[in-house]
Write a structure and sequence with these properties.
Blueprint lengths: L1 H10 L2 H4 L3 H17 L4 H10 L8 E2 L6 E2 L1 H14 L14 H15 L3 H22 L2 H4 L4 H17 L4 H12 L13 H21 L15 H4 L6 H5 L23 H14 L6 E8 L1 H7 L6 H4 L3 H11 L9 H4 L2 H7 L2 E5 L8 E7 L4 E6 L12 H14 L6 H9 L7 H8 L11
Parallel strand pairs: 3-4
Antiparallel strand pairs: 1-2, 3-5, 5-6
Helix pairs in contact: 1-10, 3-5, 3-20, 3-21, 4-5, 5-6, 5-11, 6-7, 6-9, 6-11, 6-22, 7-9, 9-10, 9-11, 10-11, 14-17, 17-19
């Protein structure tokens, strides 16, 4: 398993991955959008203040700021920011968000070494493939045990991608992934807190660290991932090698990647869509709603039937997502901020919402029923929400998402410049020059944020 993946990464060149380049650019564009959307969030600026005194040479950009830090620190911060709003990309089969842990270290290392845009895209595609295929091999039991799969599997993609950028041979790539196996962590219990984002940041930073150690000759057990006492078995069950290896190099997991229209957990998007449709159906009769019943799979209820005390809990709440769709008529970044979450009318509406299990509904689907004071009942079922593989976001939708994130994230980066740079990434000869062209010249004031 480890050796086969390492051989694949080492042997793959731009020619082998070029057909996936457009989807990779979509993923990276979405990564910039979500990172810029939370660049000035207190969680990000606090982490930046914490790391800045310990940073080495300032060679890598902190996206949304004019400062640079060393590649390890920038990887951590950019991965945290990309994942913070629950607005990042999603691999549907595993619910992994592959760009945050992989794109962050790839861009930081490529900027530090002055590598090309094609190098970036090649490494990103291969790192995403490793992340999602390992996720396939251990799903769904790994996540069900409480491991945060974006973090725990993302580190392997980060390590493989960075080892590829460093030009390591197959043995070195295998060692990087083996070293990553000793650093894989993150738990689902922390999803409603900033601690979740720490593990995503660590996946990015420690994946890069693993590759750098491998470059210096560090080795790892040949079966550190799949061995009898290796990562897969200690953190889940017997890995499914067929799901990991079948079609390797012929079918690509990045082709399955999806992009969110709403900054909330992916399983709540059908709830939001159904509520937006119902809002249109009942017109001006919102005041007549007495009860809202949301039905879904066990996964939906396990993740979202919760009390809401802050904006993080709101992003993984059936009750708040229903309030966004029905009461507010929108589910953008603003609808999940602290000020909106604590509004008395929003809190009161959440109390009208109840969640019920429907084992016949697939994961990611939802049925919403409204009971009005007149006795009427309105019901809407959404199986494939907007942004899903059946209803994907178009390129222009992701561009607009980036523009909105720049505004709501209070970034002084130029959205159109970022969009143009990402679409032309494979034409860039030097990632350092590219990132420099995106950074504003005035210094940021993050120390007072």
């Amino acid at each position: 398993m480890s050796t086969t993946l390492a051989d694949f990464v080492a042997a793959s060149s731009w020619a082998e991955v070029e057909a996936q380049a457009h989807q990779a650019r979509r993923s990276i564009l979405n990564f910039f959008a979500t990172t810029l959307g939370s660049a000035r969030d207190p969680v990000v600026t606090a982490a930046m203040r914490t790391l800045s005194p310990f940073s080495g040479a300032a060679t890598a950009t902190v996206i949304g700021h004019s400062e640079r830090l060393d590649a390890l620190c920038a990887s951590f911060l950019n991965a945290v920011a990309a994942n913070l709003l629950d607005f990042d990309d999603t691999h549907p089969e595993t619910i992994i968000h592959p760009a945050a842990p992989v794109a962050a270290p790839v861009l930081a290392l490529a900027e530090t070494r002055g590598l090309s845009g094609r190098d970036v895209l090649t490494a990103f595609i291969l790192g995403g493939e490793v992340t999602c295929r390992i996720g396939n091999a251990v799903s769904p039991h790994h996540y069900a045990r409480g491991w945060h799969i974006t973090s725990t599997c993302g580190i392997f993609g980060a390590a493989a991608a960075c080892a590829k950028l460093l030009g390591l041979p197959a043995e070195g790539i295998a060692n990087a992934m083996g070293i990553a196996a000793s650093q894989s962590a993150g738990n689902v219990e922390n999803l409603p807190s900033a601690a979740k984002n720490v593990s995503v940041g660590n996946a990015a930073r420690n994946g890069l660290f693993a590759a750098l150690l491998a470059q210096q000759g560090y080795d790892a057990a040949p079966r550190a991932i799949e061995g009898a006492l290796g990562w897969a078995r200690t953190m889940g069950d017997e890995p499914d090698l067929a799901r990991l290896l079948d079609g390797l190099g012929k079918t690509w997991e990045i082709a399955k990647n999806t992009y969110k229209p709403y900054p909330a957990g992916i399983v709540f998007h059908s709830v939001i869509d159904a509520c937006l449709i119902l809002r249109e159906r009942i017109g001006r009769r919102l005041a007549e709603i007495e009860e809202v019943t949301v039905q879904g799979s066990a996964l939906l209820l396990a993740r979202g039937d919760r009390a809401v005390n802050n904006e993080r809990e709101a992003r993984v709440s059936i009750h708040h997502c229903a309030a966004c769709g029905l009461l507010l008529g929108a589910a953008g970044v603003a609808e999940f901020t602290h000020d909106t979450v604590v509004r008395p009318d929003v809190a009161q509406f959440r109390s009208k919402v109840k969640a019920e299990l429907d084992p016949d509904l697939p994961d990611g689907a939802a049925r919403v029923s409204l009971s009005l004071s007149s006795g009427e009942i309105f019901t809407e079922t959404v199986i494939s929400p907007r942004g899903s593989p059946a209803a994907p976001l178009a390129d222009r939708d992701i561009e607009q998402k980036l523009r909105e994130c720049v505004r709501t994230g209070r970034s002084d980066w130029d959205a159109d410049r970022v969009i143009e740079a990402v679409w032309r990434l494979d034409a860039s000869d030097n990632a350092a020059e590219l990132m420099q062209s995106l950074r504003p010249t005035p210094p940021d004031d993050f120390t007072r944020s």
